[in-house]
Amino acid sequence: MKKNIIAISLTLLISGAGFGQTDPRLADQINKMYELDQSVQTDLMAAAQKGETKEKMDEHYKKIKDTFKNHIPVLKKIITEKGFPTYDMVGKEAAGNFFTMIQHADSDLAFQKACLKIVEKLVKKNQADGRSFAYLTDRVNINSGKPQIYGTQLEYKNGEAFSKNLGNAKEVNKRRAKLRMEPLEDYLKKATEFHQQMNKKN
After folding, report:
1. In this predicted model, what pLDDT tens digit does every residue of 135-148 receive, in sequence order?
2. In sequence order, what are the beta bridge partners of 154?
């Protein structure tokens, strides 16, 4: 596993990740994968709104887990063969979609950590969004059993969103501001409203 991560990192560092180029075919591949990534989650929300049985809900959760896991080797192959998809390579939409699927690669923490180092470099080159770095940093920290830094990873109690295992909460908005992110309070309010709307029963 370590050899694979090292190989991915070296490919990214020496290839230039396709800066100044466009790859519409790759963008199309990424967007199609993302459609599946989102559709299985949409199916879960629809089932929850319909009040499906626990057995049915478990089937949806398993489908989501399997979809996320099955995408990982494809994401790795793309990085190894093409470099990490940047704005210049595939456009902002596809680059963002690719990042979202990395966020969902929780079953491969080593892969997420390797990608985090790359995303940090790309943000400095304006080839990735600062939010991407924040979200993946928090995701890696949570998956590693560490406090998150930007408060992006949420849990819900009584329908209210809150940041789980947030470190140094008093300084979180200063950290978020450096990446041009809204105050945590606004982020949690929006998340709460969305969560409540999605969980209304038909």
Report:
1. 999 999 999 999 99
2. 163
Give the largest CA-CA distance in the chain.
53
Q: What H or E segment, with its residue span, contains residue 157?
A: strand 154-157
Two structure tokens written together for 106? 């929780």
Write the pLDDT tens digit of every residue in 3-51.
Answer: 444 343 433 432 333 444 489 999 999 999 999 999 999 999 899 888 8
Residues 6+ apart with CB under 8 A from 196: 159
Query: Tokens at residue 78, please?
Result: 């793309």
Cβ contacts of 157-160, under 8 Å, gap ≥ 24: 159/192, 159/195, 159/196, 159/199, 160/188, 160/192
DSSP designation for 86? -
